Amino acid sequence: MIVRILLVVMLWVCAHVSFAQSVSIRTDEWFPMNGTPGQKPAGFLIDFAERTFDSVDYKLMSWQRAVEEVKNGSFDCVIGAFKEDAPGFVFPEESWGVNQTAVYVRSADSWSYQGVDSLLARKVGIIKGYSYEEEIDALVKTRKDVFKALSGVDALEKNFKKLAAGRIDTLVESEPVANAKILQMGLSGKIKRVGHTNLPQPMYIACSPAKASSKKLVKRVDTVIRELRASGELEKIMNQYGLTDWK
After folding, report:
1. What are the tens digits of pLDDT across the range 61-91?
2. Domain segments of the chain: what residues?
3. CATH of region 101-196
4. Which of 16, 143, 162, 176 has CB 3.0 to 4.6 Å from 167, enough for a Cys bridge?
């Protein structure tokens, strides 16, 4: 009997310690999903992470580097990932939101988006390493004359500056992210949305395929997000950003 009690206690302690250790998260800035470290509000993906793990080590780097570093096991997870962004990574069952990609131009531009092929007559700003959708991703590889990729944690801001200055004439970006950046940069009235390239897509926290702890981390993610939804806390978090529960 004593042995059984000790075993239960030891299992409980091990489970607690496994989440008491810091979980390292790397990504690029993607507000309102995630902002700069220390920013308030932090972004709803960071709110979810802080409610899921006892300690979060969160820092920014370019998206492409973040995926590479997490893939090789230097860090635990990336956030805001679509499944095609991080093939082979360990994903939870539950998503951490949805995203839809939109197309933007200068307000005085009479062009409108008429499907992927209509982009081929444009100079399109994108971010290096991002996945937009299968059709666009295939064109990005072969039509560098059309798709102008930038990297770095400030790539989106640079792309909007290029669009406003006429150095590119089109920008493809997450709608909630683009809208937040337009407001932040004082470009309201100067930039407009002219269409969507896809339907809303689920996004996730994705953990390293090189770490044995990843399966345990994503199980924890599934447990906590379901608890937050059932308690109404998830809706409160999303409301801070003018958003609602995606399910």
Report:
1. 999 999 999 999 999 999 999 999 899 999 9
2. 2-98+203-239, 101-196
3. 3.40.190.10
4. 162
The pLDDT score that the predictor gives to residue 243 is 81
- Contact (Cβ atoms closer than 8 angstroms) between residue 33 and residue 80: yes
The superfamily (CATH) of domain 2-98+203-239 is Periplasmic binding protein-like II (3.40.190.10)
| Percent of the chain residues past pLDDT 90, beyond the cut | 77
Count how many Cα atoms sit within 13 Å of the Cα of residue 176 in the half-sphere of its side chain.
Answer: 21
d(CA 90, CA 211): 9
How distant, in Å, are the alpha carbons of 27, 41, 174, 222 from that of 31? 11, 10, 10, 23
- Two domains, one topology: 2-98+203-239 and 101-196: yes
Provide the phi-psi class of 78: left if phi over 0, else alpha when psi is between -120 and 50, else beta.
beta
Nearest to 222 by CA among 210, 207, 236: 207
Q: Own/partner pairs for 83-86, CB < 8 Å, 24+ apart?
A: 83/204, 83/206, 84/131, 84/134, 84/137, 85/130, 85/131, 85/206, 86/206
Residue entry with tokens 């399910």: 247
Both structure tokens of 178: 């683009």
The predicted-structure confidence for 112-131, as pLDDT tens digits, reads as follows 999 999 999 999 999 998 88
The pTM of this model reads 0.70
Give dist(CA 122, CA 103) in Å, integer: 12
- Enter the tokens of residue 204: 């996730």
